[in-house]
Amino acid sequence: MPTISQFFGIVIQMFWREHAPPHFHAMYGEHEALVDIRSLEIIKGSLPRRAQALVLEWAALHRAELMEDWSLCQSKQLPKKISPLD
């Protein structure tokens, strides 16, 4: 499970051979959420409010890169790293 970004204690990962819709995993401590790249909605799990806001802000800035990484993962290729939130 490749880590594509890390910021403020949040780890963003994307897995190979994942199911639709295009999404990524955001982990913060013991919390984990799956976030739909297209709608930026949490489709499974949860994060604390502040961590969720940071993840959604980051994802909105990097949506095109996330979709590119999703395509790479679907082709069983290593996704590219994405800049963290500053």
List the SSEs and their pairings.
Layout: E1 3-7, E2 10-13, E3 23-28, E4 31-36, E5 42-46, H1 49-61, H2 63-74
Antiparallel strand pairs: 1-2, 2-3, 3-4, 4-5
How would you explain this protein's 3D organization?
By secondary structure, this protein is of the alpha+beta class. The chain has one domain (3-74). The protein contains 2 helices and 5 strands, in the order βββββαα. Strands 1-2-3-4-5 form a 5-stranded antiparallel sheet, with helices on one face. β1 (3-7) and β2 (10-13) form a beta hairpin. The model has no long low-confidence stretch (mean pLDDT 94).
- Unreliable runs, pLDDT <50, ≥5 residues? none
β-sheet strand percentage:
25-35%
Distance between the termini: 24 Å
Q: What count of helical segments does DSSP give?
A: 2
Instruction: Using the CA coordinates, give the radius of gyration.
Output: 11 Å
Sheet having the most strands: 5 strands, antiparallel
Order of helices and strands: EEEEEHH
Number of strands: 5
Shape descriptor: globular
- Strand arrangement, major sheet: 1-2-3-4-5
Q: Let me know the average pLDDT.
A: 94
Number of domains: 1
The proportion of residues forming helix, as a percent range, comes to 25-40%
Structural class call reads alpha+beta
